[in-house]
Amino acid sequence: MPSKPQKNAPFNIVIIGQDGRLMYEALLFAASLRAMDPDFQGRLFVAEPQPGALWPHDPRMKQADVLSALKRLNAEILPFESQHFGESYPYGNKIEALLALPEGEPFVFFDSDTLITGPLSSVPFDFSRPCASQKVEGTWPQIELYGPGYTEIWKSLYDHFGLEFESTLDLDQPDEYWKRYLYFNAGFFFYDCPRKFGERFLEYALEIRDNPPEAASLQVFDPWLDQVALPLVIHSFGGARRTIPEDTLDGTISCHYRTFPLLFARESDRVVEVLREVSSPNWIKKALKDYEPIKRLIYQPKGDKIRAMFDREHLPRREKMIRNQIKKAGLWMR
Hints:
The protein is α/β, with parallel strands linked by helices. The protein has 13 helices and 8 strands. α2 (64-72) links the parallel β2 (44-49) and β3 (75-80). It is globular, with a radius of gyration of 20 Å.
C-alpha cells in the first residue's frame, strides 16, 4: 500500500500585533487559523513591540476585547524590543521579532494582513530550504536612464555579502527584466531557526541601509529594505524561489489580502467566505467592530459594493488602477 504523506513536525507561527490596525488584522489571522486548521499543533505568537526610544507612543495592544479574543484563540503575546527600527521603519518589526522566538524551532512568519484559508499543517515545508512570497510587483530597484541596471545593482549586493549570484537568476526571463532576479514579498517566509534567520536578516538589512554598495547607493530603501535584504538571506541559507508546492501559501491555504478594500475587489469567493465565517462569532465581532474599515466593509454592505464594481476574471492589470477606482467611489479605507 502507498504510504501516507508525512505530516510536518510542529512548527511555530509568528505575526505582528500592535496598537491600531495590526491588532485587528492579527485577530482575524488567529481566528482564521483556528477555524481552517483546527489540528495545528504548533504555537501561534503575536509579536508585540515594546515601548522604547524608537516609539514616540506606546505601540502595545490596548483594546481589552482584542486581547481577550486572542487569548481565547490560544495566541501567545510575544514582547520584543525595537533596537534598530521602530516607528521610523515599522517593517523592521518582522526582522527584530524573530530574535524573540524560541531558538532552534522551525517557524513561519506571516504578515498580519493574511487569512488562513485551508489546513496550514498540510503544507510540506522543508524548513532547511527557505522561500518567501512571490505575490510581488517589480517595486525595486528603480532603474535610472543612465544609471546601473538590474544585474549590476543586484550583483553588487550579492558580492557585498560574499554570495554567489548566477544561480539566483531565472534564465527563462529576459535580461534586465525584474522577474529574472530573486525578489520576494515578505508577506511570508520560513526557516528552521528564527535566531539564525533573524540575526542574518538584521545584519544584511542594516548593512544595506547604512553602507550600500556603490551600484545601489542611489536607490531608495524605504519601504523596500526588508524585500531587498530577504532574497539575499534566503539564498545564503540555501533557499530558492519556491520550495513548497505552488498552490499552497498565496493559493488555497493562505491569502495575503493587504487591505480590506483590495480583498473585496480582487480575492476569490472562498476568501470572502472565510472572512465572513471567522468574523461572525459575537465575541470576535465585539472586538473587530471598533475598527471602522472592518465595521463598514465586513459588517455593513460596503464590501459588497466594492465587490460588485469588479470582474475578478478581468481585473485591471495594475493594483493602482484598482485602488483609484475604489477611491473614486469613496470606499477606500484602511
